[in-house]
């Protein structure tokens, strides 16, 4: 949560400096996660929601909800450039002299902002829209301009509804797999847990993180 607070704090200070009062920090920066809920089986197999297993795995089976873990790292920049790989997108992993990682970057010279004099609609654009369709469970004209406020607020609305469905004790199917990262962002950028949601459902783990005994020098 500290990294998120740092980033939101920068935006909050800039909005204040520009006297912009009607904007929300999440109009500019958002964090999401991926999850899934599976409908109960209709083939006559035993219903998992009758399980009495109180372990994390047992609770996940009972509620039929699971976080989706993706080890790959990816970044799409302005529908023009894409980077994909196992490497974290930072200096340590990409420098080539420290971690043993691999990643690739790609763009199409004829589908760049500089050559098109406008929004590029090449394969990177197509890949991003395909990914969004999977994550959000729909295709919408707003997705053509991802930086627009209308698009940002639509995506946030879907992600918010998906988190509420994911966290509900009642079985509710998600629209796609994109969930809001379940924290509240205060106007000054401070990050706090949502009411009664300090830990992730079933599997546990503090949503806002917890202190570690490891010294910073081991994780830098």
TrEMBL record:
Keyword line: Calcium, Hydrolase, Lipid degradation, Lipid metabolism, Metal-binding, Repeat
EC number from the UniProt entry: 3.1.4.4
Listed InterPro entries: PLipase_D/transphosphatidylase, PLipase_D_C, PLipase_D_fam
Record carries keyword Aminoacyl-tRNA synthetase: no
GO terms under cellular component: plasma membrane
Reactions catalysed: a 1,2-diacyl-sn-glycero-3-phosphocholine + H2O = a 1,2-diacyl-sn-glycero-3-phosphate + choline + H(+)
Example of a GO biological process term: phospholipid catabolic process
Protein's UniProt name: phospholipase D
The organism of origin for this protein: Aegilops tauschii subsp. strangulata
Taxon lineage: Eukaryota, Viridiplantae, Streptophyta, Embryophyta, Tracheophyta
């Amino acid at each position: 949560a500290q990294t998120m607070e740092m980033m939101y704090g920068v935006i909050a200070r800039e909005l204040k400096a520009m006297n912009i009062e009607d904007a929300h920090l999440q109009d500019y920066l958002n964090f999401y996660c991926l999850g899934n809920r599976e409908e109960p089986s209709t083939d006559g197999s035993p219903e998992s929601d009758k399980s009495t297993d109180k372990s994390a795995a047992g609770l996940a089976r009972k509620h039929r909800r699971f976080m989706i873990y993706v080890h790959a790292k990816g970044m799409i920049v302005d529908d023009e450039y894409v980077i994909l790989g196992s490497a974290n997108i930072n200096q340590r992993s990409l420098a080539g002299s420290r971690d043993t990682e691999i990643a690739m970057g790609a763009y199409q010279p004829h589908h760049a902002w500089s050559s098109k004099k406008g929004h590029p609609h090449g394969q990177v654009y197509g890949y991003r829209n395909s990914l969004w369709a999977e994550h959000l469970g729909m295709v919408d004209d707003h997705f053509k301009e991802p930086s627009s406020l209308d698009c940002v607020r639509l995506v946030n609305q879907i992600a918010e509804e998906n988190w509420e469905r994911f966290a509900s004790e009642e079985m509710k199917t998600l629209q796609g797999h994109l969930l809001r990262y379940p924290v509240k962002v205060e106007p000054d950028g401070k990050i706090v847990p949502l009411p009664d949601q300090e830990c992730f459902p079933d599997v546990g783990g503090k949503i806002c993180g917890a202190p570690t005994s490891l010294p910073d020098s081991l994780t830098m």
